Amino acid sequence: MQFVPGMLVKSKKGRDKDHIYVVMDVESRYVYVADGNHRTICNMKRKNKKHLQVIKKRVCSPNADDKEVKKTCLAV
Predict the structure, then answer these.
(1) Which of 3, 6, 25, 71 would staple 32 via disulfide (CB 3.0–4.6 Å)?
(2) What's 75's DSSP letter?
(3) What pLDDT score does 20 carry?
(4) Are 39 and 46 in contact (CB under 8 A)?
C-alpha cells in the first residue's frame, strides 16, 4: 500500500493501538502521523508503515492545521 499525506490511518500495534491518525509525511520506511489533539503537527509521531492500516485514501489536505486534523480524526 502506498501512503500519501492526507490519508486516514489506524494504528495496529503499540501503545496507541486502534488510534486514528492523519498521515502528514512519508519516508522510505516510516510515516509521520498526527491527530491534532495529543499528537499535533509540531509533535508528530513516527510510525512504521507495517503497523498502520489505511481507513480512507484521501480525507485531509496535506498542509492542514491542527484544527482540521482534529476534526477529521474525530469524525470517524
Answers:
(1) 25
(2) T
(3) 93
(4) no
Which pTM value belongs to this model?
Answer: 0.87
Dist CA 76 CA 23 (whole Å): 15
Give the Cα separation of 48 and 45 in Å (integer). 10
What DSSP state is assigned to residue 44?
Answer: P
46, 3 in Cβ contact below 8 A? no
Give the pLDDT confidence score for residue 50 in this predicted structure.
Answer: 94
Q: Which three cell numbers stand for residue 39?
A: 499528537
Q: In order along the chain (76 residues), what is the average pLDDT of each group of 10 residues? A: 90 93 93 92 94 86 84 81
At 72, the amino acid letter reads: T
Q: Rounded to an integer, what is the distance from CA 63 to the centroid of its chain?
A: 13
pLDDT of residue 1: 72
Cell numbers standing for residue 54: 489505511
